[in-house]
Amino acid sequence: MSPAGRQGEEGPPERLARWTGGYRPQPGLPDEFMAADGAMRGAWPRLLERLGDLGEAEIMARFVSAERHIRDTGISFRIYGDQREHAWPLGSLPLVIEADEWRTLSEGLVQRAELMEAILADVYGPAGLVSAGLLPASVVAGSPEFLRPLHGVSPPGGRYLKLYAADIGRAPDGRWRVLADRTQAPSGLGYALENRMVLSRTYPDLYQDLHVERLPPFFQSFREGLAAGAERADPRICLLTSGPYSSTYVEQAALARYLGLMLVEGDDLVMQDGCLQVRTVSGLKRADALWRRIDGDYLDPIELNPASRLGVPGLIEALRNGSLVMANMPGSGMVESGALAAYLPGIARALLGEDLRLESPRTWWCGDPDGLAYVRDHLDDLTLRPAATPQRGAGRDAILGPHALAADRAQVVAALRDRPFDYVGQEPAPLSTMPGWERTESGLRFVPRPFALRVFAARTPQGWRVMPGGFCRISERPDVDPIEMRLGIKSADVWILSGSPVDAPTLAVQGAPRVRRIAGHLPSRAADTLFWYGRYTERAEAVIRLVLAHLGSVGDAVVTDITGDVRAPTALRIRAILDEWGAVSAPDLPTAAMAQEALVGRESRGSARAHILSARTNAATLRTRLSGEAWRVLADLVDLLSLDQARDFAESQLLRRAERALSHIAALSGLTHENMSRAAGWHFVDLGRRIERAINTCSFAMAFAGDEASADDLGVMLALCDSQVTYGARYMQGVALDPVRDMVLLDPYNPRSVAFQVEAVLRHLADLPALSADGIPEPQRRLASRIAAEFSAGEAGDFDGVAMARLESELERLADAVAGRYFPNGPHALRPEKLAGLA
Question: How many domains does the chain divide into?
Answer without folding.
Answer: 2
